[in-house]
Give the backbone structure.
Amino acid sequence: MTTAPDRVTYREVFGVSEFRAMWFGELLSIAGDQLARVALSVLVFANTGSATLTGLTYALTFFPSLLGGIFLTGFADRFPRRTVMVTVDSIRTVLILCVAIPGLPFWALCVLVGGVSLLNPPFKAAQLALLPQVLEGDRFVVGMGIRSMTVQSAQLLGFAGGGALLMTLDARLALTLDAATFVISALCLRFGLKVRPAAASGDKRKPFFASLSTGGKVAFASRAMRSLMIFTWIAGLMPVYEGIAAPYVASAGGGKVMLGLLLAADPIGSVLFTFAYTRWVPASIRPKLIAPMTALAAIPLLGCFLQPGPVASLILFVISGGFGTIALLQATASLTVAVPDESRAQTMGLSNTGLTTTMGVTPLIGGVLTDHLTAQTTVGIFGLAGLLITIPLAIAWQRASAGGTEEPAAKSEGARAEHA
C-alpha cells in the first residue's frame, strides 16, 4: 500500500473522487434514516396510540442488524462491493416506499422496517472493506475521521431537523424523502466508484455456510487481531449515559434542555476530538494510542461516583465521548487494514455486530442498575468496568505490536495494523 505523507489534509482526501461519492451518499442516507426514525415513531403512535408498539418499531430499526451482521456481510466479499452497496440501496428504497403506503397493517410495517435494518450491515461491511482501496496510506484514517465527524453531525441534524420538518410535513412524505436519499446514494456509488472484482473469487471463494465462520477465525487468529476486535466492542460500554439519560438528568438535576445537551455530549465530543486527532496527531504514533485513548474514555466516567451535577456531567461526557470515538476510529482502521481483503467484509461485519450488541445490552444493564443505585453511580460502574477490561487488553496489544511470540502470519497482521 502506498505510504501517504505524515500529515494528510482534508483537501487531499476530498480530492479523491471515489471517496467524495461514498461520503456524500452516506451523509444523505444517514440524515434520511434519522428523519425516518422520527417519522416512524410519529406514524405508529398516531395509528396505534401505543407507546409500547412505538418503542418496538424504533427497536426494529436496530435489532435485525445483528442478524444481518452475522449472515449477510459475507456477500460483500463474495460479490463486487460496489454492486452490493448499490443493490442494498435499491432494495432499501423499495422497502421504505412500501412503509409509506397508507393503511399498512402493523405486522407488515414491522417486517418492512426490520428488512431495512437487516440490510444495513452488508452495506457497511462493503463500505469499510472498500475504503482502504479508495484511500491509500494515512488517507484512510483521515477519511475514516471525516466519516465519523459527518456521521455524528448528520445524526444530530437528522433528529433535530426531523422534529422540525414533521411539524409541517406528513410522516409518509418524510419516509418518501428517506427513500429518495437511498436513490441518490445508489446513483453516487454506481457512477462514482470504479468497477472492481469480488475480493473472494476463484480459489478464495468458500461455500456460503463455510464462509460464515471465516470472519471469526480471522479475527481471533492472533493476539493482535483479538485485541483490535475487542477494542471495537468495548467502545459500546462507555456511552451508557445515553441509554439512561432521563433518569440521569432527574438524579443530577436539570430539565428538558439539559436532557438534550446530555444526549448531544457524545456527538459533540466526537466531532471535536476527531478533528484534532486527524489534524494534528502524527500517523506514525496513532496505532500506539488505541489503548491509552480507550482508558481515557473510561476514566472521566469514574468522576460520576462523586455524584456530579448536570454541568460537570456534561463536561465529563464530552471528554469520554471524544476519546471513545477516536479510540474506536483507530481500532477499526487498524483492524480493517490488518484483515486479508478476501475476508475483510465478513470480519468487519463481526466487529460491527459485536459493537451493536454491546450498545444494545449496555443501556439494558444500566437501566437495571439505576433502579437500585443512582444513575451517576451506574455510569461510574461502567467506567470502572471499561477501565478494568482495557488494562489487560492494552498489555496484549502492546505485546502484539512489539512482535512477541506470534507466528509469522500473525506478525504480518500486527505490522499492517501498526501502520493503519
